[in-house]
Amino acid sequence: MTEPTLRGADPTTVRDALADAESLPGTTGFAGEIDGRLVRDVLGRVPLFVDTDPAAASPNLAWAFEPSALEEPTLFPAGAAAPVGEPLPEPESCWSLPDPIPESDHETAIDALERAIQTATDAVRRNDRDVAVAFSGGVDSALVAELLDAPLYVVGFPDSHDVEAARTAADAMGRELTIVDLEPADLERAVPEVARAIGRTNAMDVQIALPLYLVGERVAADGFDALAVGQGADELFGGYEKVVRLDHRVDAETVRGAVREGIRSLPEQLPRDVLTIEATGLEPVAPLLHDAVVAAALRLPDELLADEDERKRGFRRVATRHLPTEVATRDKKAVQYGSLVARELDRLARQAGYKRRMDDHVTKYVASLLEDAPQSPGSD
To answer: Residue ranges of region Disordered (predicted)?
Structure first.
């Protein structure tokens, strides 16, 4: 079977989006080559890389959906389109992130967001795929799981926050839960596989990717085709502390402006998650990143985003219509901490001689495991 040159959308949809400069044409993202041009959607939901190796005979002529296929892979900018082989364009030079006027009526905004999320999850259900959900017990994955009515899988070390949170949330929802218990040997084995798949060795990216990879392995082994995740909710709906504090981590002076900054960070983050899930043989499914949901999120006023009392307020209002209140209102830890993967990877690094006094000791440990690991078939 020939590898498609365009992923995530049909050619007609992309051609129309190019002609109309439509940033959110009703997809879950797209990227690839069409009519001699490389394209990547405005949120960068589908990874696309070009080879910028200066030693190549024709730099930028080679491109791929995976970094491992290229000598010097560089992400093609999100929201851009350019003829194959030309210098990389600027991000959002073709499609820009919409900036609509916020909806003034809160109930109208929440109703619109609920319809958008239903549209996104209905689209997943219509596809002929066996889907499981990476479930942490937080509101994001819980709402996805409830609307997809899909099996729940949580990954973590036995005493981890995520395993306990997922267990109590599943109980509250009346759902069964499959627990993927980890041990240190799982991390040692998976680190080089993950680093190779995502094309990154920095500690943070590897720590975030490891739980996804390890739960994906189990889901794939159980015969599923796709893994659904709650990715995007924190960026779209104001889930981070920094959007409330407006501290040195953001340039914006308003909550809504800070949320937009977070949304613009997605094109750099999402390739890591997509490539990780694909490395397990599964298709990634992220309903909360559907164009309809993004469009509704962009219309939320500050009051439905976050403040010192509550984050993701509008999203939680939708969730309370479908989930027990205790699940819809709970906070959770980032996956690398909630699963205890970050803690255990740090411990393994120190046991291997990479002490905390060393600069970026976990990254150095990851690089050492990758260097010592055998190459997978076809990687040369």
So the answer is: 1-20
CA dihedral 235, 100, 34, 130 (to 10 degrees): 50
Closest to 152 measured CA to CA, from 113, 138, 206: 138
Segments forming the whole domain that contains residue 273: 124-341
Q: How far is CA 41 from the centre of its chain?
A: 14
Is-contact 170 233, C-beta < 8 A?
A: no
Residue 72 in tokens: 């010097």
Tell me: pLDDT of 262 over 80.
yes
pLDDT digits (tens, 9 = 90+) for 155-202: 999 999 999 999 999 999 999 999 999 999 999 999 999 999 999 999
Tell me if 315 is assigned to some domain.
yes
Instruction: Find where tokens 């990851």 sit.
Output: 366
List the Cα angle 365/229/43 in 5-degree steps: 85
CA distance 362 to 203: 6
Residue 164, helix vs strand vs coil: helix
Distance in Å from the first CA to the final CA of the chain: 21
CATH number of the domain that residue 221 is part of: 3.40.50.620
pLDDT digits (tens, 9 = 90+) for 8-65: 999 999 999 999 999 999 999 999 999 999 999 999 999 999 998 777 666 667 999 9
Whose CA is closest to 200, among 273, 109, 105? 273
145 shares a domain with 63: no
* pLDDT interval class at 128 (50, 70, 90): confident
Per-residue confidence (pLDDT) for residue 57, from 0 to 100: 61
What per-residue confidence (pLDDT) applies to 327?
A: 96
Both 168 and 42 in one domain: the answer is no
Q: In what order do the strands lie in the sheet with 131-134?
A: 177-181, 152-156, 131-134, 226-228, 283-285
Cβ neighbourhood burial of 159 (10 Å; 0-12, 13-18, 19+): exposed
Q: Contact, 201 vs 224, CB < 8 A?
A: no
Say what percent of the chain tops pLDDT 90: 83
